[in-house]
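Notebook B, p. 112. Complex prediction, attempt 2.
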Amino acid sequence: MHGREKTKEGSSLVPGCTSMEEKPGQPAPEETPSNAPPGTVGRELFGYVGIEAVLDQMRIKTMKTGFEFNIMVVGQSGLGKSTMVNTLFKSKVSRKPTGPGYEERIPQTMQLQSVTHVIVEKGVKMKLTVTDTPGFGDQINNENCWDPIVKYIKEQYEKYLREEILISRKRKIPDTRVHSCVYFVPPTGHWLRPLDLEFMRRLSKIVNVVPVIAKADTLTLEERAEFKQRIQEDLKAHGINVYPQEDLDDDSDDRLLNKKIRDKIPFAVVGADTEHQVNGKRVLGRRTKWGIIEVENPAHCEFPLLRDLLIRSHLQDLKDVTHNVHYESYRVQRLNESNQLAPSPAAGLLGKHEMESNL
Amino acid sequence: MAAAEIARQVGESCRTVPLSGHVGFDSLPDQLVNKSVNHGFCFNILCVGETGLGKSTLMDTLFNTKFEGEPASHSQPGVQLKSSTYDLQESNVNLKLTIVGTVGFGDQINKEDSYKPIVEFIDAQFEAYLQEELKIKRVLHNFHDARIHACLYFIAPTGHSLKSLDLVTMKKLDSKVNIIPIIAKSDAISKSELTKFKIKITSELVSNGVQIYQFPTDDESVAEINGTMNAHLPFAVIGSTEELKIGNKMMKARQYPWGTVQVENEAHCDFVKLREMLIRVNMEDLREQTHTRHYELYRRCKLEEMGFKDTDPDSKPFSLQETYEAKRNEFLGELQKKEEEMRQMFVQRVKEKEAELKEAEKELHEKFDRLKKLHQDEKKKLEDKKKSLDDEVNAFKQRKTAAELLQSQAQQAGGSQTLKREKERKNSGFL
């Protein structure tokens, strides 16, 4: 491991010289000011200690335990949700209705279907759960069609909460909470429909919502830009906070990065899982009479951006926001509710504690 | 309206799906590590050992820096724990290190209660974390975790066996914290004595059922090194912050007339092994064990003590509401009882006070009456006296006017004879 292979450098100090922070590999010690917060005493290290080996330890540990990721795709049928998921994870995680003889019937009631798979890449194991929502927004009267989804999301939080409250808890609580919800907006080119607005408004409060423009190959680049602009204005006008949420930016680096992303939301994506030959390379794309749309070409569509956001750069952040923000607010709400009927273990324990300590 | 049916097609048969291209989530561990780096790490070490065994020096040597603090005196009345927090930074890793030392351990004449402050301190840290976790509005990811991750137990280099104080303390601590026993000031023991000493210590620990921290051997990359290190426990260490020139390098060492002991020489002492194990290989595991084993055990015991159960005697899971309802009623009942008691007491006190006050009032009234009577008597006496005096004055006045009248008559009617006669009469009248 790279931590242990470093030689222990004896500090070549001149006695009397105290503020040293030696980086391994750098022969000349540098003087750096310590910016310790008030209250704790900052200490400069005189030589290499090996604290940074903890990063490697952590890496090994997480590779061993594996990761869990739960994604939900919502949108009307025919917008290419299952194809998108398959393209994202480069495998057939979502079984979509294809093949001759299969009649695509719009289900009378909306059902949520969850499928779990394990995918491994370079030693990293990930348990991926994709929740699909066929039948969303397909009825004539779509009032309250978001209710089953909201109920499902809250059920996962409830499950986690119950596990967390147990006296003898499992070492690793299974995490079935939805980490991100990808909402597919039909490419009308005009504005967001009332259904979209209503849905996103309700859901952005309990889960990370990532809106995307589906089947974007029907829009030209200018139409795309206009559509996006209007959608962004709509979202802002209605106060809908999609991921990445503005008020959760920690520092200026984050803010810059997230601002770039926020300018591009919603991503205009195209999904494809068949490969074609382009310039001698095999690429994923859709072949039409007038050309081949390459899915992974940033000039053609914004699928790479979506993939990078969801997987390569912000996956851990999605999980953290779900755990630290959405789950916590659900927990607060739930514990306050049960307070009206009976005290929660929190209030009960704290209250009893105070009683005992006062008497 | 639209009824929902949630169909879950998760099986125990979670099949592994092959990938047909590079997805990119192999950067997940890196994402996680970056987040942790931004967040910072914290590590808390507890050093338990008698005064003068070199605990502070060893900490200085381990972390290659000079922590402040003067050596403690030997005349402490009881064991106290002194904790200090430092911010260390190495390349891009920020470590918040808390070092807790025992002051006065083993110095008292009666050492029966020496372990208690230590156990209480460890429990207090767990309690703080538990309280935060149970709060309704909690901030767990920004909470300063003060739970002790590793306890370095310093054994005095007698060369024979463990002291009974050591055994008792370690037994009390082994279920609460990861104990790593080390032999301090091991330059006082020769090599042959050292091997015998180590064997004796390990056998004593085993025979007394003390569970010390074993380095994990389940992960292949560290299994080998951890396995060999486990055999070297307890580590015999020497601490020194002085640098001496040996050969052409500056090294940490201790100089004696008969030779120089180098701290970082593996042939001289096990300091390097300790540093490897504690910091470079197992820091994360120590933190994880503390959280998943020791803290969970504490939490379970604490919650059960408070009466919360997961399942009732019929092993049917208690619903949360039922438990809370029961707890609440119990709690309210207790409250009411206490309220009654207090009210009774209060009423009692009020009555007593009232009676007292009434008594006092009565007394005062009596006094008042008495005094008034006295006053009246006095007044009467004085009035009588005044009256008699007045009478006398009046009588005198009358006689005076009568005398004057006669005198004037006598002067008018006769000469001095009448006057003489009047005088005689007056005199006889007076006599």
